[in-house]
Amino acid sequence: MFMFIYPTTVRRITSGFRLPNRTNHHGVDFADSGTHEIFAAAAGTVTRSYRSPSYGECIILRHNLNGETWETLYAHMQKGSRKVVQGETVKQGQVIGIMGNTGQTTGQHLHFELHRGTWNAAKSNAVNPLDYLQEGQNPTANERKLSGMIPNWADWQWKEAASIYKRARENQILSSDQWEKKAAAKNLTFDEIEYLNLVLNGRRL
């Protein structure tokens, strides 16, 4: 069961979880140039928001999901970009910082860790994030550009929209570029408008 969204729209991975040549790498590195927001992978509470010699600008979030404690770690953020403080509650998909190059790094990237339990220095609770991340939950930059084109809908319509979004997500239909082209050409169907409206408003299943 997927309970976490990708913490960034970047999908280029430069280092995976505990690879044969990097068994002490207990997370996944997402890397790209430019400015990229970092999102909370799930709703939770900030347990740490600090600067580390190794992790650089770093945030750790604690999540209580289905009676189980998890923690996510977001490292090497841009200097001064941390947007949350210890003790603060966050929503899934909330922007918590910007990808950067602080701490011990060789280039700009997000080092992301997922722990089934609380974070500890031995990383004994670390699991491979890619086994738990759900694609397509957080709106991309292109999708957010379209927000002004789609009206708000009444609450009773969300149930049907959620069903459409679930089917679309499971079938991995349409990339962001395709959405943008279809919207610009006014070629979106009724069902597609419901789906996109759900994404843009950050609704979660």
What would your notes on this structure say?
It comes from Bacillus mesophilum. This is M23 family metallopeptidase. Residues 24-128 form the M23ase beta-sheet core domain. GO terms for molecular function: metalloendopeptidase activity. It holds the Pfam family Peptidase_M23. The protein has 205 residues and is of the alpha+beta class. It folds into two domains: 4-134, Glucose Permease (Domain IIA); 141-200, no CATH class. It is built from four helices and twelve strands. The protein has helices at 141-145, 158-170, 176-184, 190-200, and strands at 4-5, 13-15, 28-30, 37-39, 44-52, 56-65, 68-77, 89-90, 95-98, 110-115, 126-127, 133-134. Strands 2, 3, 5, 6, 7, 8, 10 and 11 form an eight-stranded antiparallel beta sheet that branches. Strands 1-12 form a two-stranded parallel ribbon. Strand 6 and strand 7 (68-77) form a beta hairpin. The relative contact order is 0.17.
Summarize the helix and strand pattern as letters.
Answer: EEEEEEEEEEEEHHHH
Helix content: 10-25%
Counted up, domains total 2
Reading off the top of the CATH hierarchy, the class of the largest domain is best stated as: Mainly Beta
> Can you say what the CATH homologous superfamily of the largest domain is?
Glucose Permease (Domain IIA)
Alpha-carbon Rg, integer: 18 Å
From the N-terminal CA to the C-terminal CA, the straight-line distance is: 12 Å
Main structural class: alpha+beta
Low-confidence stretches: 143-158
The DSSP helix count reads 4
Strand content is 25-35%
